[in-house]
Amino acid sequence: MGHHLVPRGKAASIGLAHLATEYDTPSFFPIPYSPGDHEALHRAQRPHIGKLQRPWNGTADELFEAAGKGLDSVAHLTGELRIPSTGEVLASGVTPKEALAKLKEWHEQQMRGQSGCS
Questions:
Q1: Taking CA atoms, which of 56, 79, 80, 116 is between 20 and 30 Å from 35?
Q2: Is the CA virtual torsion 38, 92, 24, 107 positive or negative?
Q3: Is the model's pLDDT at 72 over the cut of 50?
Q4: Cα separations (Å) of 59 from 40, 65, 68, 69, 95?
Q5: Quick one: pLDDT at residue 1?
Q6: Is residue 95 helix, strand or coil?
Q7: CA 1 from centroid of its chain's CA atoms
Q8: Strands 89-94, 27-30: parallel, antiparallel or unpaired by DSSP?
Q9: Helix H or strand E encompassing 21
């Protein structure tokens, strides 16, 4: 099961549609997956990002910063950052925190593409 390292609802609430899709947004997939891994990721992030159903009131940079806090507690997990709809692997053999850094790079590329700059 994949985990959206930046919660989709929070991303959508600040206009980051590319981070708010179920299948087109890169997600972290623990490998090997063990029952409870997904829940452990939520527990690690929840104190820093708040309830998933609530909007984000800060900037995109602040959301990425908050999403990264607590991920050191799940550094024993490794896996892939993958786009579910295409199967494209953006990073493999990475911890959740390393995957988040790669996700931020992907996000910045998407933002550059939206502005028409290369």
A1: 56
A2: positive
A3: yes
A4: 25, 10, 14, 16, 24
A5: 80
A6: coil
A7: 13
A8: unpaired
A9: none
Contact 8, 21 (CB under 8 A): yes
Q: What is the pLDDT of residues 47-66, one digit of tens each?
A: 999 998 899 999 999 999 99
Six token digits for residue 37: 């891994």
Tell me which amino acid residue 7 is.
Answer: P
Nearest to 47 by CA among 27, 23, 71, 80: 71
The pLDDT assigned to 91 comes to: 99
Is this prediction's pTM over 0.90? yes
Q: Please name which of 28, 100, 7, 48 lies closest in space to residue 16, comparing C-alpha atoms.
A: 7
Closest by CA to 27, choosing from 88, 114, 117, is 88
Whether residue 32 has a cis bond before it, omega within 30° of 0? yes
| pLDDT recorded at residue 116 | 55
